[in-house]
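Bench log, entry 3. Co-assembly request; chain sequences pasted below exactly as received.
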Amino acid sequence: MIEDVALADCALEVEATDPNDLFETAARALAELMVDPSTVGTGLSRVIALTAVRLDLLLYDWLSELIYRKDRDREVFPETHVRVEGTGPCRLEAAARGDVLDPGRMALRADVKAVTFHQFAVMAIDGGWRARLVIDI
Amino acid sequence: MSEASRFKVWPAGEWIWEIPPSEKPGMRVPARLYASETLLDQMDPGVFEQVTNVACLPGIVRAALCMPDGHWGYGFPIGGVAAFRADTGVISPGGIGFDINCGMRLIRSDLTEAEVRPRLRELVDALFAAVPSGVGAHGFVRLSDADFARVMVEGAGWCVQQGYGWPEDLDHAEGRGALPGADPAHVSARAVERGAKQLGTLGSGNHYLEIQALRPDGLHDPGVAPALGLDSPRQVLVMLHCGSRGFGHQIGTDYLRRFDEAMPRYGISVPDRELACAPFRSPEGQAYFAAMTAAANTAFANRQVITHRVREVMARVFGRDPRALGLSVVYDVCHNTAKLERHVVDGESLELVVHRKGATRAFGPGAPDVPEAYRAIGQPVIIGGSMETGSALLVGTAHAMAETFGSTAHGAGRTMSRHQAKRRVHGGTLIRAMEARGILVRAASTAGVAEEAALAYKDLAAVVDVLHRLDISRKVASLTPIGNIKG
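Structure output for the full assembly:
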């Protein structure tokens, strides 16, 4: 988490070895904003496929999809296995594992609203990839 | 001069500060901040960067404004106000926020604190059970697609027709609880799917349902208070803070993405991608305005359904009909919207798209859309503070119409991040400490309680004093929390 950026929201920097890892780690970080993953099961599985014209927009759409499913289906996915192909245009196939939200047995955190474009960036760095995200809470 | 700003910030009057256009390439108008020296010093660097970015947007008139509760948001600062010419200017989802028509509603009662105290725990528990809150909560109202389309257009009026409210509730809401221009045709199926089951839910973050008391030392204007329904010592009131839920969030997401791709076609470049915008009169601009207004109306409906639940619960707990308890709506006001309004700029009456992001409309006496009951005193302004320290009720002024496009602050404004707040205080400890001070809290997330601790916010009284002294709204009452339901 990055301190002192967009105080009412949550700024994150995610580092990973490759795009697959970047998308999986970003999804994990998003899930951790919403729930304590140690209280969430992994018995629910979903397959998600997305396409976008650029890698950064694919990450935006990926996280937005997970937020959308949180509200539509009350499902959260702390564990994902993601395969990203291409950097532009690009596509994603993900196997997501998680649970249906249940306040009775889960420690809930924030009801995330959206991924913003504020300081939004996806970049290749020495030995890996980095994304900077500000999540509206 | 604020040390947080890398720009020169000049005094432009008592508690008014300006950053001239020469300070940043691309600024079309000055940036103007309303704050005491203390509050200006508490503003983080992002506020100055963002308010000067807003000043770069096409069609902006007079100045990019920041209210005294200003803090670093995304795109616009929170507390930001900007008006763009409807004919040549833009509309920007980042100037409204994802939580479209996040807003406040205040409900009065004839109950006193002495009557409520003995039943307070029962009341807080019952409200917590009746008003779903927290991550992904679904409400009790089941909407068909046709019903939802009517909610988008009719807002709180649809709820009243279904029995979730009283006809006079609509007289006491900004725009009578439904803004003109909503068109479901411009709303995605995803937005409908995401929001269809969330009517009547609170959300999380800084959203709350609060039971408050008007203490003697909180009554600032006894001449105006009775007209607002604040008419008895130690009276109890209920305040709501919530918005359009996943429906509005999805509309924001959809159109931010669409505007990001559309901007090159209009030759627009922005200093921050979150300021993605399109000409207001373009197909994209008109589509977003129609969808955004649909979300705004859904937010009014959300607060109306919660009002219905509050009345049901209080009737059950106190064994009296809601009307016998005097549970009438004082007012419902938006603080995340863009609206078409007419204002005088340099002597010319212009149609403007007024963006308010974390800022409240504050129309003065006699202004259009101020309910008949408040026509003489000005539009009620509800400002939510932290869950520990309370909130404020003010009224709009004629001076606000001239100075701030009829706008004022919306809250206390954060001074530290959520993460920092959680490091400073534990949610469970805070809940116990608040209970010892007479404030009962029920929350879907204890971590969320820590994030909303008073130490993370500016002093609300200092913010309100600035508004009052600058005459952009006048303080009427401070309200003290005694029970809080949080997401």
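Chain B has a mean pLDDT of 96. The CA atoms of residues 96 and 172 of chain B lie 23 Å apart.
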